[in-house]
Amino acid sequence: MQGLVGQTLRNRKALAGLVLLAIIVLAAVLAPLLTEYQPLQRIGRPHQAPSAEHWLGTTRLGQDVFAQLLYGARTSLLVGFAAGILITIVGTITGLAGGYFGGKVDAAINVAANTVLVVPNLPLLLVLAAFIGQAGPLVIVLILSATSWAWGCRVTRAQTLAVRTKEFIQASEIGGESRWRIVFIEILPNLASIVMINLIGSIIFAVVTEATLEFLGLGNPQTVSWGMILYNAQNTSALTVGAWWEVLAPCIGLALLGTALSLVNNAIDEVSNPRLRAGLALRRWKLRRRQIEGAR
């Protein structure tokens, strides 16, 4: 695990992604220091263009878009990370249990995972959110966690089946170690890269899905998030009246967050995948060879 972290931190993509993610998180945490306005406070004229006073303009109700962008990042990040962590925990535990214990445990987990995978995810989310009504962040987290764990479960189970046949696992079993200790101490560290990729992918999925649900009007209108900014912009015909900044701000926020997490995800994949490592080493060697030949 420590080796994976060290190699990832030395990867340029990972560093770029982590720096960008840190900037987004700090902007959300330090929102009261970066803007004097509250996100739902009416402080200007309707649809006022970006200016020195209001960096990203105002909404139809005269609210500061920059303040909404910063405070909305809090909600979007909270939902994304909370749902991503829960999805990863459920998928990892069920995958480990099914892959190692086998038998009836594996059969029951497979039935549940296949059932979740068969049902289209987004339509199911829309139906559940519509049934609940105005879904707040906590409700969205629970819905995403209950409907999105199956993919991680299947991948973790497949890797667990491969690791459980290794000699060090058999030695632990012969030595009388408890089965749960073998699962979490011996097997889980060997799946660190799979778990991290599942976590980051789940966070990206949760952020985008939360924005989608709120954009479709299934979120709580009193919640400030990037999805609700887009929903309000749609309701007030922001693009029709030329208030492009109201739509552009949350879109840039979502794009930057997705880019940061994708860079980290790709870096972990490169570090943990031997084929990708070999390909990168070969490209570096060819580049170095060209440089040497060019110097001659």
Overview of the structural elements:
It is a single chain. This protein has a single domain, classed as MetI-like fold (Orthogonal Bundle), CATH 1.10.3720.10. About 75% of the residues lie in helices and about 0% in strands. It contains 14 helices and no strands. The chain has helices at about 1-10, 10-30, 30-35, 65-100, 105-120, 120-130, 135-145, 150-165, 165-175, 180-185, 190-215, 225-235, 245-270, 275-295. Helix 5 (about 105-120) runs antiparallel to helix 8. The radius of gyration is 23 Å and the shape is globular. The mean pLDDT is about 85.
Average pLDDT works out at: 85
Q: Would you count the extended β strands for me?
A: 0
Shape: globular
> What is CATH's topology name?
MetI-like fold
Low-pLDDT stretches:
none
Span of the ends, CA to CA: 43 Å
Number of DSSP helical runs: 14
Supply the CATH class. Answer: Mainly Alpha
Which architecture does the CATH hierarchy give at level 2? Orthogonal Bundle
What is the percentage of strand-forming residues?
under 5%
Query: What class, by secondary structure content?
Result: mainly alpha
Total number of domains: 1
Residue share in helix: over 70%
Main β sheet profile: none
Radius of gyration using CA atoms only:
23 Å
In CATH terms, the superfamily is: MetI-like
Following the backbone from N to C, one meets helices and strands in this order, namely HHHHHHHHHHHHHH
Essential attributes:
single chain; 296 residues; mainly alpha; MetI-like fold; 14 helices; globular
Topology of helices and strands:
Layout: H1 2-9, H2 12-29, H3 31-34, H4 65-101, H5 103-118, H6 121-132, H7 137-147, H8 150-163, H9 167-174, H10 179-187, H11 192-215, H12 226-235, H13 244-272, H14 274-295
